Amino acid sequence: MKYALVSEKHATKLASSIGSILENAQSRCELSNLNLTALQEEALGAAYLWRSDKNSVETMAWLLECLFTISFVTLGMMPYRSQARGILAILSGQLAEMQTGEGKSLVAALSAATYAITGRTVHVATVNDYLAERDYQEFIPLFSALKISHSLIKQSLSEHERKTAYRQAVVYASGRELIFDHLRDIMEVGHRSSRAQSAVKKITARNTVRPIMDKLDCCIVDEADSVLIDEASTPCVISLPTTPVFSPTELFSALEFAERLDPKKDLDQIGHRTFSLSESGEQFLQNQISEGAYPNHLMARELLRFAITAKYSLQLDHDYVVVDGKIGLVDKLTGRISTERSYQTGLQQLIELKEGLELSPTRDNAGRLTYQQFFKKYRTLSGMTGTAKEVARELRTVYSLKTKVIPTNSPDAKVCVGYHVCKTQEDKLEFIVRQCKSIQAQGQPILIGADSIEFAQQISAKLEHAKLSFDVVDGLNDDTEATVIAKAGISGAITVATPVAGRGTDIKIDPEARNAGGLHVLLSSLQFSQRIDRQFIGRAGRQGDPGTYSVLISHEDPVWNGSKLSKVRHVLPDQLQLHLIRQIQRSNETVSRKYRKRLVRQEEKRMQQMAFRKKR
Questions:
Q1: CA–centroid distance for 540 within its chain
Q2: How crowded is the C-beta side of 308, counted as CA atoms within 13 Å?
């Protein structure tokens, strides 16, 4: 990358001397007269010298040696060779693919410290607020020892506090917090700019209002595939209350209409949980309109279509959940919950009415920004994740971000113990219970991957009926789920989790679990993306630990829905069924990629149209 701290050529040279850099740092740590103040001054001196000669590989090696030593003194952490290689990838503006448990948090902190000590401003973006705060708190001693100003962005901060926080050298925040703060700045500048067009004298007033964010210099994205790919499927939108389009009476009548339909007679299924009105249903609709329930025929048809979707297509604990009296949308690909996003006006209120919730006010979009638009604005973008190879091409095309695969510090020791095909979901649930009893008896901890909150609840009910103790993490509470996931490595523990629940938290196994064979990951369903499967399976066998995994599929798994290949699944051998699901996953990933590509083009076109209107 053009504005990276070191070039890829220099990073390669530094990689060849990583062994000696780490050895020198370790030797320093063993000295009895090690002085932290002297180390601080030496690191600052190396950084100052590097700024005067940015092509000096020797100076950067010296600086890294000082930083690694200070890391050990302040945190008790000396980076492994694999972590040092990850740091070099980030300093050269690349995306480091590092397996689960390789210590990506330390890599991000030391990379941020290196950028900051050489005069750059760094944002460390994570997938949620909990991980941002956890990592920030852990590495405060490192930044303080290096006299690097640092801050944390969280939802509770006032606008003034945010402005102060963004003026620090290292800023930790979730990706969404960063995007929304930048979007607020854009809206403020746009508002002031439009007023200036009507009164030239007010143009200078733009400079008197201080933006929330200072500048977009460097960004290190942790769990980059989740932030830059999965989250990027939906733009971030700031909306304002507006005049309601539909009255509560109209909404209630529409939902009542949907409930009075006979699904077998009045609806035609045109896809997985996708319906249209049959001839009988159309006649029923015309009768409703003729009775004068809706003055506007076109609006009536749209609202009733929403009502059918709310009643028959969208399901509680599968497509959405209820959190603190609000609708939270479930990301189909990742399983994450978001109460900040909503369905479009009309559909959102119908779902709230269906679940007996207070109706949210109708809102109109005041500003929007995509993840792609935002992260491309950084002068230097880099990051790390455990699963990047499946989306490496998209990352390169959209963000100009190359992927660098980092070898593990220790050989991967986890073993696949088999794939099993069940005919029905009930058969699968019974198989899961038998597996849990058998594996738990051996002393191994078990992590069960469920493809949805709904299926996690079904597994939980079966385990409870079998009188097995277990924990559940389902994406509803980031801080609680991380605590539960962290305990999932205790011998004999059973944990049920949705795809990315607890992502970013390592599962450390205890000695008894290690002797029993390590963590066993039981993937109860293959996801819509093979990348999510790989991420979940990667929780076993961290840092060379022993571990096992197995995969369950059934003829009723959601991944089959909507695929033509599903028609032949019953007559195929088990191994061929698995192969077909992998094909379906690749097809799903292609569809998602095309959708994100179309979203980028639509936003570019929208921005061009807005610019044209302003010129006129």
A1: 20
A2: 22
Task: Using alpha carbons, list the distances in angstroms from residue 255 to 141, 268, 300.
Answer: 56, 18, 12
Q: Reduced to 3 states, what is the DSSP secondary structure of residue 496?
A: strand
**In the beta sheet, which residues pair with residue 381?**
219
Mean pLDDT is lowest, of 316-320, 429-433, 561-565, for 561-565
Q: Per residue in 29-57, pLDDT tens?
A: 998 788 899 999 999 999 999 999 988 99
Candidates 310, 319, 351, 362; CA nearest to 337 is 319
At 204, the pLDDT band (50, 70, 90 cuts) reads very low
Residue 310 gets which letter from DSSP?
A: I
| Residue 195: per-residue pLDDT | 41
> 85: pLDDT confidence band, cut at 50, 70 and 90?
very high
Cβ 220 vs Cβ 178: under 8 Å: no
**C-alpha closest to that of 69 among 103, 113, 116, 108:** 113
Q: Rounded to an integer, what distance in angstroms lies between the CA atom of residue 341 and that of residue 321?
A: 12
548 three-state secondary structure: strand
Task: Please list, residue by residue across 334-349, b when 16 or more beta carbons sit within 10 angstroms of its beta carbon and e when fewer do.
Answer: bbbbbbebbbebbbbb
How large is the C-alpha radius of gyration of the chain?
Answer: 27
Q: List the single range of 7-11, 491-495, 504-508, 547-551 with lowest mean pLDDT.
A: 504-508
Q: What is the mean pLDDT of the chain?
A: 86
pTM of the model: 0.84
What is the mean predicted confidence (pLDDT) over 394-421? 92
CA angle, 386 then 174 then 90, to 5°: 45
According to DSSP, the β-strands at 267-271 and 274-277 are antiparallel
Supply 546's token pair: 């022993």
Cα–Cα distances in angstroms (integers) from residue 353 to residues 242, 275, 339, 347, 360, in the given order: 19, 20, 17, 10, 10
Q: Are strands 494-497 and 446-449 parallel, antiparallel or unpaired?
A: parallel
**48: helix, strand or coil:** helix
CA distance 332 to 581: 17
Residue 590, C-beta contacts closer than 8 angstroms, at least 6 positions apart:
none
Taking the C-alpha atoms of residue 212 and residue 119, their distance in angstroms, rounded to an integer, is 21
The Cα–Cα gap between 46 and 226 comes to: 35
Confidence (pLDDT) at 15: 95
Tell me the angle at which helices 248-260 and 347-354 cross, rounded to the nearest 10 degrees: 70
Say if residues 498 and 453 touch (Cβ distance below 8 Å): yes
Q: pLDDT tens-digit profile of 419-442?
A: 888 888 999 999 999 999 999 999
